[in-house]
Amino acid sequence: MQDHRVRTVMTSTKLLAELNKLNSEWSTSPFLFGFNLVNLTRLDEAASRALVRQLQGEAEVLAADGVVDDVLIHTNGQPYLIQFLCQRLFETDEEGNGRLRSVREEDLGVVQSWSSVENRF
Questions:
Q1: Nearest-CA neighbor of 32 among 10, 14, 13?
Q2: Any residues with CB less than 8 A from the CB of 105 and at least 6 apart, and which?
Q3: Model pTM score
Q4: Closest CA to 55 of 89, 93, 91, 82
Q5: Low-confidence ranges of the chain (pLDDT < 70)
Q6: How far apart are CA 93 and CA 109, in angstroms?
């Protein structure tokens, strides 16, 4: 019996669904048995900008328009990648306000890899 307080999140490309189809003829349980599949598609530009600036939260994150543009370019509007990159860019100033610094090359390793994979589909 699963504990209702425990959640498992598994991320992948669309190729995971192909693997799930392949095992349909196997004499075992379905590969993704017990998982609810949710496809996270890219957000539109307005929703992406709102996510970067955390407009849905109690305190907006300050970010220059150029920084927001860079985040959208590097993440292709994918919500997970936006949050991942913004976590790397987040800083708190002396007054306790959150802001995003400029993107640096070392911030992009994983983001570039996943964003380029997503663009193939």
A1: 10
A2: none
A3: 0.66
A4: 82
A5: 1-4, 6-11, 27-32, 110-121
A6: 26
